[in-house]
Amino acid sequence: MNSAGQGQTISMMRIDPNSTMNSCQRWGVVELLDTAPHTELKKLSRQHEQVASELGISMSMVQLLDFASLWDANIEVGGRVLFVAADEAMYQFSSRACPAQRGLSVVHLPELEERFAQDDHHGGRQLTLAAAKAGHCNAILDANVLSAIADQLTHKDAGTRDSGAPLQRLKAELQEALALLGAAKQMLAPPGGTRDAEVSACLESIHMAERRWSQMLSR
Fold first, then answer.
1. Higher pLDDT, 150 or 29
2. Distance between start and end Cα atoms, the chain
3. What is the DSSP string of 134-166?
4. Is the full-model pTM beyond 0.70?
5. Which run of H or E residues covers position 106?
6. Element housing 108 (H / E)
7. What Å distances lie between residue 156 and 46, 81, 85, CA to CA?
8. Rg of the Cα atoms in the chain
9. Beta bridge mates, 154
């Protein structure tokens, strides 16, 4: 959103309850975050700000990238934050400012759209055709699908790709899920509290999930 026209388009989409953006938010496809309070750079430097200015990139976009970098730095499991840039200059700047290391992945929107159109494994092609025709398909767009397709772009160089990274990421996420389930059990069944049939059934399901996931982690 480097131009006033693009900013105006976003403002109109926010106002219109039936806009694509608001519809996707209602469906749970996207979540809108207010970044207005984020006015000072936390992860990027003033040098980045100067380079962006020379490339014609607005300060608001620099702050957005900085916010994404900060968000990524505060997530325990790396590789969960994806920064999609439609503008070529913004893509090149973001790629240099945030080289692919622990987490934040920078993706060029045209390449992502091309990958979706070619993907037959995760339903990307079906979703592309459905979007073009404003129709329906059996595939569901969610974070896992987007991450799987975008991962092909963020690991283009097979020589530098860590084949064990997806497995390690899955194990880390399972460990995080187990910790969350432990906290959930304490809330559902505090010491000295009473349990009804529904709570007991829920706790039993949690126990079974914990056992399965623990077995997976031990392999």
1. 150
2. 47
3. T---S----HHHHHHHHHHHHT--TTT--TTHH
4. no
5. strand 105-108
6. strand 105-108
7. 30, 18, 17
8. 21
9. none
